[in-house]
Amino acid sequence: MKTLVGAMDGMGPADALHAVAELQKEVNRTEASLVRSARQAGLSWEAIAQCLGVTRQAVHRKYGKQ
To answer: What is the residue range of 36's domain?
Structure first.
């Protein structure tokens, strides 16, 4: 991600926005994968929520049915 952010220097606004959108997609994929791994490892929704800085309800709503 640092490489992509660093590559944004000198980009026009549209290209930089596209790069940010790609970063957000990658972060979302990574977060989902880590939440699945955490659940498989036995972490509670509360523990995962604390790690992510959100409520238990928010993390369960987002990932509970996956």
So the answer is: 2-63
